[in-house]
């Protein structure tokens, strides 16, 4: 296996993680930070970089798993409508001024929305005792549009104040990253990542087709359901941590496959780390480019991601499901 | 061909030109009394214009406002014509306005052109910066037939502005100020806003003035690095105090937080209208 390439990707991702702590609108020297620099480093940058990395891990993994279980190279966590459900719930809580649970209001409502959307997609995608890839995909697209338009309806009839905030949140906003939400996000994402890693062999079999997977001794229904749940957990957690950050779930697995091949046992962990690194670097660019103004990270991921995606499309046949 | 052709064409269209010219003069004579009469039914397409109209005693003549026009209380009861960037043309027309007042800030230019093409009179309120406000109010009053009341309001504003810049001497040390419009994500008042103008009026420094837009999404670490002496937090539609806790915790090392110079203000400075008078007083009280 291309262990050199894998090592390189892992080292690069982790390197980006650490570099993001010290680079930014102002450079912080890791050796002799002043009191203000220390405060910036520990209470602002560190939680933000950690959350960015966690979200990247969740989205990169979800994308790799989904492209496998749906057997569709276009799949990403947002195609399933999970993010739209989360965004709708978040917009509802932002615009209604509902603030019962303090700073956890927004993450919790987003997570609830993501879970509700996942369950609905699961119900619509369920037929004859199993989740069918095509049904899942179509149900996700249909529900996604429904939630998205419901959210736009809310935004268009709401007064101005909550509106801009909602729009920023939809693009993905890491600025309010805070230590307090990290444990919860970490728990769900770790759980999802654990399931995905553990079921990587089964995912390899599912990619080959249901019949083949069955003859290899895997319970197709059970494996697909389990992997779907892991994706729902990770996507829900990531959306509630930082809004809907696009493109990572779509592009990172393809990029990783072009380096390490199609074996899910490598693709999943490497996609996780590369997703983390990619979001860290996007956020770094977003907060540095027009400093002191910030550009939401979700815009940067799409701006860098799309051209690279098109380049991959031209260069090789990575998109053969 | 050409030489003989052009004069004959000229002679043929001369009567036409002449008659249309006469007709235009006639139309102008007929319409000028209409122009001179103060408009009875006014539609306002901006909250600040609505506030000014109420302040100069034209509340009764307001036939329609936007959904954002929420001040004074009576404004909420007026018929709504939609938002600022997307007012409904049909709703405006069905109110049969004599004049529609727009702003350069929030209303699309195309909408004004569309109204004029439908032969609806428009007035564009152009004041965007604080020093332009008195003149803008006077112009608006003149067009709407209440020059005296408008002049009185304009004078009040001028006095307040002059008073504030006199107070500048009371605060000799230039303080670094941050005005938070929304704490999560952090959106602050940058350059070109009424708030920035008022801060400048008092001779203080708005740290967000270096950002490139008027209401930038601002970097929290930059706030901490620039260490503001005073933080103002504007009114939001939810519990802004609770919502600001996270932000204030993050900038706990800034002088403003350490010395308790964090003030929650009303929304008086959000609109280029008469409430600026109170906003200036509020800010002056905090600066002392």
Structure overview:
- The complex is a heterodimer of chains A (321) and B (288).
- In chain A, a hairpin with a 2-residue loop joins strand 1 (126-127) and strand 2.
- Chain A contains 13 helices and 2 strands; from the N terminus they run ααααββααααααααα.
- In chain A, strands 1-2 form a two-stranded antiparallel sheet.
- Chain A has helices at 3-22, 35-69, 82-96, 105-124, 133-157, 160-170, 182-198, 200-208, 210-215, 220-242, 248-260, 264-288, 297-315; strands at 126-127, 130-131.
- By secondary structure, chain A is an all-alpha fold.
- Chain A has one domain (3-315): ABC transporter involved in vitamin B12 uptake, BtuC.
- The model of chain B is unreliable at 1-5 (pLDDT under 50).
- Chain B has helices spanning 2-36, 47-55, 89-94, 109-117, 133-144, 147-167, 194-201, 220-226, 240-250, 255-258, 276-287, and strands at 42-44, 62-64, 99-103, 122-125, 176-182, 187-188, 205-206, 230-233, 262-264.
- In chain B, the strands form 2 sheets. In chain B, strands 5, 6, 7, 8 and 9 form a 5-stranded mixed β-sheet that branches.
- The relative contact order of chain B is 0.10.
- Chain B contains 11 helices and 9 strands.
- Chain B has 2 domains: 42-160, Rossmann fold, CATH 3.40.50; 171-287, Rossmann fold, CATH 3.40.50.1980.
- Chain B has 288 residues and is an alpha/beta fold.
- Chain A binds chain B through residues 24-26, 35-36, 39-40, 43-45, 97, 99, 102-103, 159-162, 164-165, 168-169, 173, 175-176, 178, 287, 290-296, and chain B through 67-68, 182, 184-187, 208, 210-213, 215-222, 224-227, 236-239, 242-243, 245-247, 249-250, 252-253.
């Amino acid at each position: 296996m291309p262990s050199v390439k894998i090592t390189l990707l892992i080292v690069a991702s982790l390197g980006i993680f650490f570099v993001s702590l010290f680079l930014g609108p102002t450079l912080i020297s890791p050796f002799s930070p002043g009191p203000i620099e220390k405060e910036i480093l520990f209470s602002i940058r560190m939680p933000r970089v950690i959350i960015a990395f966690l979200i990247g891990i969740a989205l990169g993994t979800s994308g790799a798993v989904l492209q496998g279980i749906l057997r569709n190279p276009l799949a990403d966590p947002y195609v399933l409508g999970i993010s739209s459900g989360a965004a709708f719930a978040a917009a509802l809580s932002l615009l209604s001024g509902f603030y019962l649970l303090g700073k956890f209001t927004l993450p919790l409502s987003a997570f609830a929305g993501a879970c509700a959307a996942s369950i609905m997609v699961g119900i619509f995608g369920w037929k004859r005792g199993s989740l069918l890839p095509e049904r899942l995909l179509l149900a996700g697209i249909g529900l996604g549009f429904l939630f998205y338009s419901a959210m736009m309806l809310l935004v268009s009839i709401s007064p101005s104040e909550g509106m801009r905030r909602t729009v920023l949140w939809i693009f993905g906003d890491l600025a309010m990253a805070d230590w307090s939400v990290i444990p919860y996000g970490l728990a769900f994402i770790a759980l999802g990542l654990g399931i995905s890693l553990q079921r990587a062999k089964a995912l390899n079999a599912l990619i080959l087709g249901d019949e083949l997977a069955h003859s290899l001794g895997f319970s197709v229904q059970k494996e697909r359901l389990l992997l779907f749940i892991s994706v729902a957990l990770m996507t829900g957690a990531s959306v509630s941590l930082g809004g809907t950050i696009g493109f990572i779930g779509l592009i990172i697995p393809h990029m990783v496959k072009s380096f390490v091949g199609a074996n899910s046992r490598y693709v999943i962990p490497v996609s996780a780390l590369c997703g983390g690194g990619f979001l860290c670097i996007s956020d770094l660019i977003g907060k540095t480019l027009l400093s002191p103004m910030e550009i939401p990270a979700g815009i940067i991921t799409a701006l860098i991601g799309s051209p690279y995606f098109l380049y991959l499309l031209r260069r090789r046949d990575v998109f053969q499901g | 061909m050409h030489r003989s052709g052009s004069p004959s064409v000229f002679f043929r269209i001369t009567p036409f030109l002449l008659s249309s010219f006469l007709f235009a003069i006639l139309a102008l004579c007929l319409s000028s009394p209409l122009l001179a009469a103060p408009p009875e039914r006014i539609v306002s397409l901006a909250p600040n214009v609505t506030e000014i109209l109420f302040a100069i005693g034209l509340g009764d003549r307001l036939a329609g406002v936007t959904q954002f026009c929420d001040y004074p209380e009576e404004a909420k009861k007026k018929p709504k014509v939609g938002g600022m960037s997307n007012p409904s043309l049909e709703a405006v027309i069905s109110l049969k306005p004599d004049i529609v007042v727009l702003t350069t800030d929030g209303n699309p230019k195309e909408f004004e052109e569309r109204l004029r093409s439908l032969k609806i009179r428009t007035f564009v309120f152009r004041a965007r910066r604080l020093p332009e406000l008195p003149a803008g109010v006077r112009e608006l009053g003149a067009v709407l037939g209440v020059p005296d009341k408008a002049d009185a309001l304009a004078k009040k504003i001028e006095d307040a502005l002059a008073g504030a810049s006199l107070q500048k001497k009371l605060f000799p040390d230039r303080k670094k100020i941050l005005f938070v419009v929304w704490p999560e994500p952090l959106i602050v008042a940058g350059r070109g806003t009424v708030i920035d103008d008022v801060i400048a009026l008092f001779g203080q420094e708005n740290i967000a003035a270096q950002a490139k837009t008027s209401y930038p999404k601002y970097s929290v670490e930059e706030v901490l690095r620039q260490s503001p002496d005073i933080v103002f937090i504007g009114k939001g539609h939810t519990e802004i105090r609770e919502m600001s806790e996270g932000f204030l915790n993050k900038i706990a090392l800034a002088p403003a937080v350490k010395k308790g110079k964090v003030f929650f203000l009303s929304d008086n400075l959000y609109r280029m209208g008469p409430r600026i008078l109170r906003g200036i007083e509020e800010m002056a009280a905090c600066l002392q």
